[in-house]
Amino acid sequence: MRARFYAELDPVLAAHPDVDVVLAVIGAGNLAPVAARHPGRVIDVGIREQAMIGVAGGLALTGRRPIVHTYAPFLVERAYEQLKLDLGHQDVGAILVSIGASFDASTEGRTHQAPADVALVSALPGWTVHVPGHPDEVAAMLHAEAATDRRVYLRLSTGQNRRPWAAPDGRLVTIRPGPPEDPLVLAVGPMLDTVLEATADLRVRVAYTATPHPLDAAGLRSLAGPTPVLAVVEPSLEGTSAAAVAAALADRPSRVVHVGVPRDAELRRYGSAADHAAAHGLDAAGVRRRVEELLGARPGLLAAPGGPDPRAVSPSR
């Protein structure tokens, strides 16, 4: 996803004369050819992430469209006050593009981990959050958002699904259909293939979104049915979408489990992103355990031969 983002910046800058890229060292070497082709439009402020957001806010106030890029903890957590004031309070837009995701850069230590980033950005008014699951989704979202003036957070990941699924308008997409009374598992971004593996022989439906905020509430209501049994599997902090899901289903008796990076435990060990996913229960085995807990491990949960085709796809509404 990161390589695809860098590759798309040249055509984005060519297509949108008002777009500038603001960096805090990270990515500067990769974008040297882009900077040479678009003089003055790739701005490196040095290791000053708060100033980077301030510069983006100033550019936006003059009518420019800034794309701001660095690691997630530096972009969101370190500069959170500037997101609130220099962009939000000024009511101007920017596209924040992060790398590192929850623990993609786990070998760099806790300084480079930010599982709470989506929750933090979603807590600020007026933001759209994209969590793409494939490089093609990154490209589509970047080009589409460059033509708007919205405040956007685009969260890149090293993990990805085998193919793109995202609907262009952020709607939920049905990946594995089934009877409406069957439980529903909603996968966010790069968690989809893990969810499909974890639930391959379970009688559950699977839906997908790459835009968890604002959540497609109408699509969720349509899929969930009158008495929802639902699992939401996210690559970010557990319960990140809980408030949005609860609001969408407020008038319905429901049973919901939220699967993500646990809130009550901090892993103080080095290891790969896959090691961290397994330790946090976000690998296929861990996701399956949580879904089985939701379903109660009752007889009849295994999919019958000839059941729903996991390759099938249709829009939620």
Notable features of this structure?
alpha/beta; 2 domains; disordered C terminus; 6-stranded mixed beta sheet; 34% helix; globular; 6-stranded parallel beta sheet; 317 residues; single chain; Rossmann fold; 12 helices
Structural features, described:
With 317 residues, the chain is an alpha/beta fold. It has two domains: 2-155, 3-Layer(aba) Sandwich (Rossmann fold); 173-315, 3-Layer(aba) Sandwich (Rossmann fold). The protein has helices at 2-15, 32-37, 49-61, 72-77, 80-89, 117-122, 135-146, 192-198, 217-224, 242-248, 273-279, 284-295, and strands at residues 19-23, 42-44, 65-71, 94-99, 127-130, 151-155, 173-176, 184-188, 205-209, 229-237, 255-261, 314-315. Strands 2-1-3-4-6-5 form a six-stranded parallel beta sheet, sandwiched between helices. A six-stranded mixed beta sheet has the order 11-10-8-9-7-12, with helices on both faces. Helix 8 links the parallel strand 8 and strand 9. Helix 1 runs parallel beside helix 7 (135-146), helix 3 (49-61) packs parallel to helix 5 and helix 9 (217-224) crosses helix 10 (242-248). The chain is globular, with a radius of gyration of 20 Å. The two termini are 29 Å apart.
Q: Sketch the topology as an H/E string, one letter per element.
A: HEHEHEHHEHEHEEEHEHEHEHHE
Residues in helices, as a percent range: 25-40%
Helix vs. strand class: alpha/beta
Number of strands: 12
Mean pLDDT: 93
Strand residue percentage: 15-25%
CATH superfamily of the largest domain: Thiamin diphosphate (ThDP)-binding fold, Pyr/PP domains
Quickly count the helices.
12
- Characterize the largest beta sheet: strand count, sense, and whether it forms a barrel: 6 strands, parallel
> Which geometry do the CA atoms define?
globular
CATH architecture of the largest domain: 3-Layer(aba) Sandwich
The CATH class of the largest domain? Alpha Beta
Task: Indicate the CATH topology of the largest domain.
Answer: Rossmann fold
